[in-house]
Specification:
The protein has 369 residues and is of the alpha/beta class. The chain folds into three domains: 118 residues, Udp-n-acetylmuramoylalanyl-d-glutamate--2,6- Diaminopimelate Ligase, Chain: A, domain 1, CATH 3.40.1390.30; 115 residues, NIF3 (NGG1p interacting factor 3)-like (Udp-n-acetylmuramoylalanyl-d-glutamate--2,6- Diaminopimelate Ligase, Chain: A, domain 1, 3-Layer(aba) Sandwich), CATH 3.40.1390.30; 104 residues, 2-Layer Sandwich (Alpha-Beta Plaits). Helices cover 27% and strands 29% of the residues. The protein is built from eleven helices and 15 strands. Strand 12, helix 9 and strand 13 form a beta-alpha-beta unit. It is globular and about 85 Å long.
Length: 369
Amino acid sequence: MKIRDIVNYLNSRFLPFYQESYDNSGFLIGNPDTETTGILITLDVTPDVVSEAIGGGFNLIVSHHPLIFGGLKRITTENQTGRMITDLIQNNISVYAAHTNLDNLDWGVNAILAQKIGLSQCHVLRPLDGMLRKLVTYVPNDHADTLRQALFDAGAGGIGQYDCCSYNSDGIGTFRASENATPYCGQIGQLHHEPETRIELIYEKRIERKLIQRLIDVHPYEEPAFDCLPLDNSFPKAGAGMVGILPHPMPVDEFLDIVKEQLHLPVIRCSQPSNSQNSKTKIEKVAICGGSGSFLIQDAKAAGADIYMTADLKYHDFQQAEDKIILADIGHYESEQFAKELIYNVISEKFSTFACQISNKACGYIQYK
């Protein structure tokens, strides 16, 4: 099994298309045509993880955080990142990262965090915009069923929990073939009227190229007419953060104790409740965002969450609580720690011919004394 095969599978599951513009997910280092000897999974690529990969015979590291994040102008052994990249290349070890795309997927980092703390009825807190489009095309009536099914098979026609969704209307198409054309119907040089079906389907922007190619391959016309229309609809299957419901309301301290136990936290940084009548005393609706999530505080408020848990909150971020929500910083590594488990499960369910292991050296950069 070549590393290229693993990378193609990971791309099909983790969908790098949904990473944020500042991110650098995907295949970062290595030769994709190398045979895979083993996969090591980690949250961060560190010197200890690189040494573990070298010593354990793993030639592919799959991490959550990209080793190469910002622009690198030089790779030398004068800094830690350069030394790691040098060691990886010299030992023929490849690196793949699934970062904000794994954060944004509705079954990704936030979903597994929600599962660990017992949330249900979960949905994305801030869905991505601009991810949906509508395809409109026209086809002879007797080819409508075949083309429509081909477009469904290519991934179009999904709306929420429904698939094979389309709108169809009948009309008359007109065209006149030039002398260089090879018309499916009608005569060269003569205006032709053809009974046609107008087919409309919604699709994810990421599949547009594949979808249009499928339309061209199946459509009987030499040059089929079609429109790709942008939509303002939000895309509920991907986006930042998540919000869900506890099985029953519980006191704030009781809920925080459960979180500390489930996430193995020594401490949680929280906003200070006041004596105001509006202060939260019970927790039922919970908003979460693995990693740095201060940008979602207002979204959590708007969703009616009783508490918003994320990481890397600054001192003044806590002022935004305003007795309307409890803000809790549960730590960056701690909020994303289960990404390792998630990546491991995705790989293991598909590949079993080589070793796949979660790193024994994967740990956060912050210690609590």
